[in-house]
């Protein structure tokens, strides 16, 4: 299958949105930032060149001035809180979690509050008071308590639920991970997932489609996919890349 054949379904779906006089809302979230790296430079370059707004989930306990100085030079970047230290507290037979039931809720919430305060000090107006749980997992008991810690929104993976006690801005297509596979995901599979999300919203456009990236583990396949994705969507009248702040406002 050629590249054009791989991307044709997305083009056709966006054409459908255009013909209906509508624009599919897209947003981009990248996880696990700590410090400036060559991989981060690549991400900043391709999103900047494509004018795609990017929200970077930063790990508060491990970051500092170096990353802040670099990101504050980019006008298309917002920052969210990526847990506290991205430490796994789950048992060996469980899925990894930092924000699970393995520790007292007061302790976990205190760390999250410290993380928000830390990033507020580093990023000021660039910070979105949105929590991005490490591994996209958080105990259900903690979610109603996030607002009291200063968070306005939560971003995990999967379609939102109507009864959430806090605003959700989720991601839906993970460029790197799927069912145990890490990296080198077939581009045809990624396009198919994106098209499926768009089709689900055509009749009920109740939430934007979030693309999730992890710059530190990207290889040539991931960079190629993102570059082509931005080319296909950036100037298409049926699509609109939006910032997390605009979507939450």
What does this structure look like?
With 249 residues, the protein is an alpha/beta fold. Helix content is 37%, strand content 17%. The strands form two sheets. Strands 1, 2, 3, 4, 5, 6, 7, 10 and 11 form a nine-stranded parallel beta sheet that branches. The chain has a two-stranded antiparallel ribbon with strand order 8-9. Strand 2, helix 3 and strand 3 form a beta-alpha-beta unit. It is globular. The chain starts with a helix and ends with a helix.
Q: Could you give the count of β-strands?
A: 11
Low-confidence stretches: none
CATH architecture: Alpha-Beta Barrel
Helix content: 25-40%
CATH fold assignment: TIM Barrel
Radius of gyration: 18 Å
Overall geometry: globular
CATH class: Alpha Beta
Summing up helix and strand content along with how strands pair, one would put the structural category as alpha/beta
> For the record, what is the CATH homologous superfamily label?
Glycoside hydrolase/deacetylase
> What profile does the largest beta sheet have?
9 strands, parallel
Rounded average pLDDT: 95
What order do the SSEs take from the amino end to the carboxyl end, as H and E?
HEHEHEHEEEEEEHEHEH
- The tally of structural domains comes to 1
Number of helical runs? 7
Strand content: 15-25%
Distance between the termini: 41 Å
Structure described in brief:
The protein is α/β, with parallel strands linked by helices and 249 residues long. The protein has 7 helices and 11 strands. Strands 1, 2, 3, 4, 5, 6, 7, 10 and 11 form a 9-stranded parallel beta sheet that branches. Strands 8-9 form a two-stranded antiparallel sheet.
């Amino acid at each position: 299958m050629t590249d054009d054949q791989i991307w044709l379904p997305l083009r056709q779906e966006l054409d459908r949105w255009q013909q209906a006089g509508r624009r599919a809302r897209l947003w981009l979230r990248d996880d696990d930032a700590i410090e400036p790296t060559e991989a981060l430079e690549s991400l900043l370059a391709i999103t900047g060149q494509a004018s795609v707004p990017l929200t970077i989930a930063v790990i508060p306990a491990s970051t500092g001035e170096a990353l802040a100085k670099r990101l504050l030079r980019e006008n298309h970047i917002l920052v969210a809180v990526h847990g506290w230290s991205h430490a796994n507290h789950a048992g060996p037979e469980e899925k990894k979690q930092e924000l699970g039931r393995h520790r007292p809720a007061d302790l976990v919430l205190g760390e999250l509050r410290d993380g928000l305060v830390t990033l507020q000090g580093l990023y000021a107006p660039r910070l979105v008071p949105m929590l991005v749980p490490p591994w996209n997992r958080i105990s259900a008991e903690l979610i109603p308590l996030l607002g009291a810690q200063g968070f306005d929104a939560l971003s995990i993976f999967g379609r939102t639920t109507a009864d959430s006690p806090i605003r959700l801005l989720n991601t839906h297509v993970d460029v790197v991970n799927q069912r145990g596979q890490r990296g080198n995901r077939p581009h045809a599979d990624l396009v198919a997932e994106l098209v499926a999300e768009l089709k689900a919203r055509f009749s009920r456009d109740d939430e934007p489609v979030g693309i999730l990236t992890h710059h530190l583990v990207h290889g040539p396949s991931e960079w190629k996919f993102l570059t082509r994705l931005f080319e296909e969507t950036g100037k298409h009248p049926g699509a609109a890349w939006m910032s997390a702040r605009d979507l939450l406002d």
